[in-house]
Amino acid sequence: MAAMYNLVSNPKSLSSFLTNPPSIPCTNLTHVSFDQSQYCSSYSSITRTRPTRSSSSLFQSNAKKKKNPWLDPFDDGEDPDMEYGSLFADGKQEEDPRPPDDPDNPYGFLKFPAGYAVEIASLGLKVRGDVRRCCCVISGGVYENLLFFPTIQLLKDRYPGVQIDVLASERGKQTYEMNKNVRWANAYDPDDEWPEPAEYTDMLGVLRNRFYDMVLSTKLAGLGHAAFLFMTTARDKLSYVYPNVNAAGAGLLLTETFTPETLNLSDGGYYMYEQMNDWLGRPFRSVPRTPVPPLRVSLSKKVKEAVETKYTNAGAQKGKYIVIHGIQSDSKANMQSRGDHDSLLPIQVWADIAYEIREFTPVFVIPHEKERENVEEVVGEDASIVFITTPGQLAALINDSAGVIATNTAAIQLANARDKPSIALFCSEEKGKKFVPDAEEKKCTIISSKTGKLIDIDVEAVSNAMQTFNVSLALV
């Protein structure tokens, strides 16, 4: 709090907005000591039903974290004599309703909220922990970036007016054409263990020049990745760290760390970012806990028109076709999860499943043009085939369909995001519960293999589950 007192010569002049005792310490301090009795009472009032981990186990894991004396040897925790009021200390930050000064400027402009004063610019950031600019470094491909959408919406709800930027791989960047909450998306692969020095330093300079208040990363951080986040000069630096000795030294450079149970974060399924969401949505003074919203995607008119042309040329009609996704291929556009490697089926199995479709036209989605010949050879030359490689076009194709039959690919999550009935094929029942929790509420039927191998999926069970599409057609 020394930086705050430097703004005013007399600390007593701050009494106008430092009047009430705090219930939870400041958010932007590196490590603080929580009053467990108050925090437990507020936390226990929140009921969440999730199939992965209970709320009590999450709190117990967070409570076991000990203060690291190497971060700040002079930090004795929250000042017990400090009193907070409402000005710059309570409630949420306010979103600036004014339009941009220069809409044609690609670099935007400096947004100043109402009542902003340069002399106390950092006071709201220091006391209340406001976040005006946030950068998200996302590890993984399309599937992992798609499951990060609820976290982005959580940031928008918790910090109104925040500008969110994303760093993702080239494949992952394509996902954000379906997210209106993201300002800029840059192609930078955080999973590259040996990046080019020129590319590394250039991206670091770009992040520093944007002056972020918060940088969060889903890549398991060691000392190297933690140093990259530290050099962005952001105030809050959040990241997952390795659950083993490779995490040594990373906590010294990060504000908050999250330790997954395994080395593969995608093993957590749909709730793979649960620890980070739990910390971002935590209650703060008079602000209650911010719930995690469901997965939703938005589609542009141009993408819809382009996709409509594709499936029309393939012989399908709007609302009268079933999307089949998950054909076995070595293409990078298969959009499967890192947590489920057994999630693609050969075209011979898909041909048996498509044969059971009666009242709809099966539309086969191929990730590469070289698969077209294989599909025509097995299914027939009159098969409806659509070549799609981007998640935005796949979402538009699903949006105009009657339903989806797919393995554990991004198609299942996109069907749930657009409220379309779906049949999900998994290699095991455990995988199905992890990646599609609350399947009945999402109008999703899970069919799992009894042998633990996806190729042994029961085609008859899939055929019986197709009645879901007939019900949806009758409702239309």
Describe how the helices and strands are arranged.
Blueprint lengths: L1 H4 L30 H9 L10 H9 L57 H7 L5 E5 L4 H5 L2 H10 L4 E6 L1 H4 L8 E6 L9 H13 L4 E8 L1 H8 L5 E6 L14 E3 L15 H7 L20 H13 L7 E5 L21 H9 L5 E6 L3 H9 L5 E4 L3 H9 L3 E5 L2 H8 L4 E5 L2 H7 L8 E5 L10 H7 L1 H9 L1
Parallel strand pairs: 1-2, 1-4, 2-3, 4-5, 5-6, 7-8, 7-10, 8-9, 10-11, 11-12
- Poorly predicted sequence stretches spanning 5 or more consecutive residues: 1-64
In spatial order, strands of the major sheet run 3-2-1-4-5-6
Helix content: 25-40%
**First and last CA, distance:** 60 Å
Identify the CATH class of the largest domain: Alpha Beta
Assess the beta-strand content as a share of residues: 5-15%
Continuous helix count: 18
CATH superfamily of the largest domain: Glycogen Phosphorylase B
CATH third-tier fold name of the largest domain: Rossmann fold
N-to-C SSE series? Answer: HHHHEHHEHEHEHEEHHEHEHEHEHEHEHH
Number of strands: 12
State the secondary-structure class.
alpha/beta
Indicate how many domains the architecture comprises. 2
Radius of gyration: 25 Å
Using the 3D structure, state the CATH architecture of the largest domain. Answer: 3-Layer(aba) Sandwich
**How many strands, which pairing sense, and closed or not: the largest β-sheet?**
6 strands, parallel
Average of pLDDT: 82
Query: How would the global form be characterised?
Result: elongated
InterPro entries: PNSB1 (IPR044983)
Biased composition (Basic and acidic residues): 91-101
Biased composition (Low complexity): 47-57
Region (Disordered): 47-106
